[in-house]
Write a structure and sequence with these properties.
Blueprint lengths: L2 H19 L3 E8 L5 E6 L9 H9 L5 E7 L1
Antiparallel strand pairs: 1-2, 1-3
């Protein structure tokens, strides 16, 4: 298994863990652009996690782009 596949597998497990909680949570994804501009996205629907969010994590962990993401569970 390549490093990228390992990262994707770990992220998928983490997202499935979040999905299994089914609690109220806020997911903040912060993208740092080329001009140091910051875009924040608040995701409150559990189904949204399986869209572009996993790509944010993958790109951050593979250092292809400057992304930062954090999860807040309530």
């Amino acid at each position: 298994m390549t490093m990228n596949n390992k990262i994707r597998f770990i992220l998928l497990e983490f997202l499935l863990f979040l999905y299994s909680l089914r609690e109220c949570y806020v997911f903040m994804a912060i993208k740092i652009g080329e001009k140091n501009e910051t875009v924040c996205t608040q995701i409150t629907d559990i189904s949204d996690i399986f869209g572009d969010t996993i790509l944010i994590f993958v790109r951050r962990l593979t250092k292809r782009r400057k992304y930062h993401a954090c999860v807040h569970l309530y």
